[in-house]
Write a structure and sequence with these properties.
alpha+beta; 4-stranded antiparallel β-sheet; 9 helices; binds flavin mononucleotide
């Protein structure tokens, strides 16, 4: 049991959000294994609400193109409302992880153009060879999204176990109407996020930092 826990903990500790990928594709059999593992997460009523579009090759490039056109057109319209604000400790953590990235890639405070350029890297999919677009039935509402959150996490961990790097991206879901059109995803489904994935470029500055976590006693309220 101790061995199993330490192996799992090491897998969790080794995963990070990758923001620079090599071009080489992930073999289909590896992607299928990752998906098969991610599907094992629990869901309310075992509804398994996740549906996934996975792009490779020219289809990933076409997605990059569609997203960049959408950003230029300014058509930001997520299916699921984006957070209305981050305050207190959440604001602090958001700032800390943002500045860890900006410091790593050399964006200095106040350089709005450089900041915007780094933010646009989301829509290049950080040069990943693949992207997974995750959607959930609209009628399942927040609980469908909750189930899919588990799927997204398991996908990232299963990928990590295969040596494949990932980054979940809500930024892509900001342009949901374009994704519905581009992939023919019906309006009865909510587009939740993308996961860009592939093999990490270990030397890229954007991959040179790691985020930290609040200690357990900050997140738990023991009773009894
Ligand atoms: C649902 C979700 C959406 C995210 N969206 C983005 C995104 O749009 N762009 C981005 O650069 N990172 C995004 N991230 C990555 C987070 O910034 C990252 O998980 C967090 O800073 C913790 O760092 P780590 O994943 O390296 O441990 C997202 C993560 C999750 C779970």
């Amino acid at each position: 049991m101790t061995m199993t826990f330490s192996a799992f903990d090491a897998l969790l500790a080794g995963r990070f959000s990758c923001r620079a990928f090599r071009a080489d594709p992930v073999p289909r059999a590896v992607i299928e294994r990752i998906l098969g593992a991610a599907c094992k997460v629990p869901s309310w009523c075992n509804a398994q609400p996740w549906q996934v579009v996975i792009t490779s090759g020219a289809e990933t490039d076409a997605l990059r193109g569609a997203l960049k056109d959408a950003v230029e057109a300014g058509s930001h319209a997520p299916d699921l409302p984006f957070p209305t604000g981050y305050s207190g400790v959440y604001q602090q953590r958001r700032r800390d992880c943002g500045w860890a990235l900006y410091d790593a890639v050399g964006v200095t405070r106040g350089d709005r153009a450089a900041l915007a350029r780094q933010s646009m890297r989301n829509f290049d999919l950080f040069d990943a060879p693949h992207c997974a677009i995750i959607s959930s039935p609209a009628e399942l509402g927040a609980y469908g999204a909750l189930d899919c959150g588990g799927f997204v996490t398991a996908f990232t961990l299963a990928a990590q176990a295969e040596g494949v790097a990932t980054i979940p991206q809500a930024a892509l879901a900001g342009f949901s109407p374009v994704l519905h059109r581009h992939f023919g995803i019906g309006d009865d489904r909510l587009i939740l996020c993308g996961i860009s994935f592939g093999y990490a470029d270990p030397d890229a500055p954007a991959n040179s930092f790691r985020t930290d976590r609040a200690p357990v006693d900050e997140i738990v309220d023991w009773r009894g």
